[in-house]
Write a structure and sequence with these properties.
binds magnesium ion, 29% strand, 28 strands, alpha/beta, Molybdopterin biosynthesis moea protein, domain 2, Molybdenum Cofactor Biosythetic Enzyme, Chain A, binds adenosine monophosphate, six-stranded mixed sheet, 4 domains, Molybdopterin biosynthesis moeA protein, domain 3, 420 residues
């Protein structure tokens, strides 16, 4: 176990320590329409064969292949089988049935000849122009899936296609790993609602909306709580409201400033402080605590720090909580396009624009005004990782990069990464 001490934790130790705080995965049954981006908590079996009958794959005529071996031959057409309207019959020698794609192949038929290779002589006679072999243009019952077969494994992330598969087998509800509901609380005397024009010294509550979007990207339900002033009593009240949810995100008030009351308020409220301060840039003052069934994050107020610490600590924790196999951001290695310098001591997650060109990732570090410059950061789609002991990375270095959601966002790929 790690000790909470005055010593700053490393990034890796902090991630590990947070992961140890997570509750064991809980399983919930959700309506299928509410299951998007959850993780399946059980194997799912097919309740029926697919297709459930021998199915025509072409428009044409269902025939006995032996009858048309010496085509061209004329057959007696005895009816129509269309999708959803099967023809109850059994083909006798010399007979055929007009059939549509998706329709049930009538008993006795063992092949379908495509309409282009037939000619209608009159109402009851059809000429089959070419032979077909047994089974041609038919998908046999259970040709795709057999009843009882496992069609989705526990651990599958429920994106559109698995949800379609569940629907195909009649699952109206599905067992998934539970996700925490989140409370978001912005703190600070200077913070005003985004509907206001801030007076001198004030600043709009952008973090709450950004964190809300980050939570929504994990499909979390969120309560956006009112802004709290820098007052221990008010913070305490806000904390007890926020603790109704299992995931509590505070932003602001976690540094060493005189009015940064959150660490004290958490302690006085009986929360366990798991960690305070991690050797990272941006985001050093991050605070993590636990009370009852809630995990509490105090994220630094500077918007870039708030965003980055969510990505580095909250997202992996929530993903593990929700049963995802991989918990962190996608990591790649790329070619650094420009020199990067930093004061060593803390691992640096620097805004970067990464593109895949000339068969490798090219990493362009961005010049921003630092952890308050969210607008400058908005051009980034990735975080360049500069080790804590590194002071200089020359252009051309092979560098580690974490890809942000935005890297994959539709319409937002770097010019070289073609979107279809
Ligand atoms: P703090 O971590 O409370 O010291 O806040 C650091 C800085 O982050 C403040 O001076 C604000 O400029 C900014 N900040 C704090 N909270 C927010 C917020 N909710 N939205 C936008 N900016 C914020
Ligand atoms: Mg503050």
């Amino acid at each position: 176990m790690f000790e909470v001490s005055a010593k700053m934790l490393s990034y890796a130790d902090a991630v590990e320590l947070i992961q140890q705080q997570l509750p064991p995965p809980a399983v919930v049954r959700l309506p299928l329409s509410m299951s998007s981006l959850k993780v399946l908590a059980e194997d799912v079996v097919a309740d029926s064969d697919i297709p459930p009958f021998d199915k025509a794959l072409m428009d044409g005529y269902a025939v006995r292949s032996q009858d048309v071996r010496k085509a061209p031959v004329q057959l007696h057409a005895i009816g129509i089988s269309s999708a959803g309207r099967p023809l109850a019959c059994k083909l006798a020698p010399g007979q055929c049935v007009q059939i549509m794609t998706g329709a049930v192949v009538p008993a006795g038929a063992d092949a379908v000849q495509r309409v282009e290779k037939t000619g209608r002589i009159n109402d009851s006679t059809v000429e089959i122009l070419e032979a077909v072999s047994e089974g041609e243009n038919i998908l046999k019952q259970a040709g795709e899936v057999r009843r009882g077969q496992v069609v989705l494994r526990k651990g599958t992330v429920l994106t559109a296609v698995p949800i379609g598969v569940l629907a195909a087998f009649g699952y109206t509800h599905v067992s998934c790993y539970a996700a925490p509901r989140a409370s978001i609380v912005s703190t600070g005397d200077e913070i005003v609602e985004i509907t206001e024009r801030p007076e001198t010294g004030k600043i709009r509550n952008s973090n709450a909306y950004m964190l809300h979007a980050q939570c929504r990207s994990l499909a979390l339900e969120v309560d956006l709580l009112p802004i709290v002033v820098d007052d221990p009593g008010e913070l305490k009240k806000a904390l007890s409201r926020a603790l109704l949810n299992e995931l509590v995100l505070f932003t602001g008030g976690v540094s060493m400033g005189e009015f940064d009351y959150l660490p004290r308020v958490l302690k006085e409220s009986g929360a366990d402080i798991i960690l305070h301060k991690v050797a990272i840039k941006p985001g050093k003052p991050i605070l993590v605590g636990r009370k009852d069934r809630s995990l509490i994050f105090g994220l630094p107020g500077n918007p870039v720090s708030s965003f980055v610490t969510f990505e580095l600590f909250v997202r992996p924790a929530v993903r593990k909580w929700m049963g995802f196999a991989g918990s962190g951001l996608p990591k790649i290695w790329g070619n650094l396009l420009r020199d990067v310098r930093q004061t060593p001591g803390r691992i640096f997650f620097k805004a970067a624009l990464t593109a895949y060109t000339n068969e490798q990732f090219q990493v362009d570090p961005l010049d921003t005004q630092g952890s308050s410059d969210l607008t400058g950061f908005a051009a980034a789609n990735s975080l360049l990782v500069v080790g804590a002991d590194v002071s200089f990375l020359p252009a051309g270095s092979r560098v580690e990069v974490l890809l942000l959601d935005r890297y994959f966002a539709a319409g937002d790929s770097p010019p070289s990464l073609e979107c279809v």
